[in-house]
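Supplementary Data S3. Sequence and structure tokens for construct A.
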Amino acid sequence: MYYSLESKKSRYRLYADHGGGGFVEQLELEFPFKSYDTYYYVGSCSGLICFSDYLLNYLRIVLWNPSARSHRLVPIPRILDSDVSFYDVLSFGFDEKCGEYKVLRLIHVYGRHSAIVGQIEAEIYEVKTNLWRQVSVIVPCTVPHCSRQAFLNGFGHWIGFSRDAPHLKMVVMSFDFHGETFREMDLPDGAALWSTYNLMMTVHRGSLCLIEKDVVSGLCIWIMNKYGIGSSWTKLFTIDLVGDLGRWERVLGFRTNGEVLMVTENDELVSCDPESGKISRLGLHGIQISLEAVQYMECLSLLCPSIT
């Protein structure tokens, strides 16, 4: 998914990644909705992809199954009173025990005259019922709007700030899509935890992964060897921030062969072998903030469009 500088429009393409060389284009996809704003990638799991946008001051969410050519416009969630300021953080996941896709909405409420987040409310949308419901649970962390979700084994994960710590402390917050509970996990002791903007959660070969962009060290890749155990974080490798093609501005994730997908300062998608440092050009260019790489698995689940 990217905004093409050549055609001057958003492109949604399915590529086969056989682990070496470039990608093999399989199919160009037609996104089912048009928007006056930009659709943002929320998450993907079990064959469905979730997007959201902010159109005319309300939250619009789309679930899309490219394989089945089906989609659903999720009903508009609850709109808060106009006297308060708030922002939303979304997560998309699959409850394997119930066979249910869910969207989690975390509403960070500011209040009328406060710049500090007060309460955090949680709501869940379920595909089978096509309804939103409030969840009575304590959300232990404030999650910045820029924090990206990583979905692994039925849990969503973000980088956030613990609300119980006596001082500002960054942690991993997870959400169990079956039990609908939260928990906190420690980040690596050796990571540069100075801003959430330089950190990204993802998944690498079945393990929770932290990508740290440090102006001194470079791009550091950490793996949690034992899930839930903060002391089990291990730094796998470090990549210099500047290479033959310029500066690496964004990391999108990993290829099937373990290479890192990155975007250069010149809006080019490249692949880097973290062991040898070899850079492979993939022949794709797009505005760097629009580029997204999603590991996709075909699914036959049909999503009947919502009538809202």
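Construct B, processed identically:
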Amino acid sequence: MQNYNRGFSLKMFTNERQRYATGIIFLLGVVFIWVGSSFLMNNIFAGQDYNKPFAITYINTASFSLYLLAFFLSKQKRSIDKQRIIDFSHALYDTASRSSVESLSEHSAKSDEAMHITVPTEQCVSTAPQRAHSHIDPHDLLLSTHNEQKLSNREVAKLGLTFCILWFAANWSSNASLAYTNVASSTILASMSAFFTLCIGALVGIEKLSFLKFIAVFVSIIGVFMISREGTLETPDESPASNPLLGNFLALLGAFFYGCYTVLLKLRIQNESHVNMPLFFGFVGIFNIFLLWPFFWILDWFQIECFQLPPSNTLWIMIATNALVGTFLSDYLWLLAVLMTSPLVVTLGMSLTIPMSLIGDSVFKGILMSNTYWFGAFIILSGFLAVNFAAFKENEKENEQKYTLLNDDVVL
């Protein structure tokens, strides 16, 4: 039994490593999707002359409501399958319990005959649960723990409402900042989301402060600064910022909101098995549709963003593609990456969109980048690798402690 527990711990330890690696793969997938989405959004705003950041953000967020269709369509089938699993589990448990008691009784009877000792039946029955306990699979203990921590539908709805507000505020603030300040300043201040994520995560116990993490965040911000400033110097014809103080404040506010909702999700969900993901995103989409539509008329009334539907079929197709791939799919993968790794790892990973965009500009637009660009991209990548190293070591240490305690509990 002890060897079995060691083998189980090794298997679960390996599964945790695979889970972390899967999260990194999802993160890289999100980076590729967001880079493609940024080129598409640039074409929508500039090439198609549809500069409506609120409308685009509203449509993107509303696409989350499509997850509810899959949830309700599969609800009846899941109920049937769940009942079958419950019935099967009960039958299996009853059969296993009876066989354990019967085998224990036979073993006790043979021992009594060999040693000529009479053992009361009550004693055999009382020892049965203790010996049956030694045959409990530790995996069942972990599954029962996950089920106990699973969020109820009401809790998922509350979390979806909070996330909807913070997510929309972060995205709108970032988009709106571009109307008042230049792209370089907005990009640099947006990279401060890594700093906010680290600080907020440390305050609530999600992230552990370390020198390596701090250096990784600082280095990443320096890399973003180098690339953004170099871009400003190479585009002197860019129109001057109309209100740089307001624009910079909005960009910084967007970075703060991003840190808030990223840490919030990790804090409340912890593990992807604790929440029904389609239901969560479905609530986000529904809350977005019913709570935020009045802002169309408010923004139109104050002439901040005049209400206008996309004027062409091509524009509708581009917006729908961006919503389904750039938001509907990518944010699902993004949340899985946050839960499988850490908020700080994912936040710094999103900075990889900058060097990936440089590669995209070089390949698709034939733009030649200076050495400063590539050095800044290298620094950003170094910061991402450094924070991954720190987070991976922390996870290894936590998993060792967790499975050591699990082995001790099961053996006892």
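Residues 114-147 have pLDDT under 50 and may be disordered. DSSP finds 17 helices and no strands in the chain.
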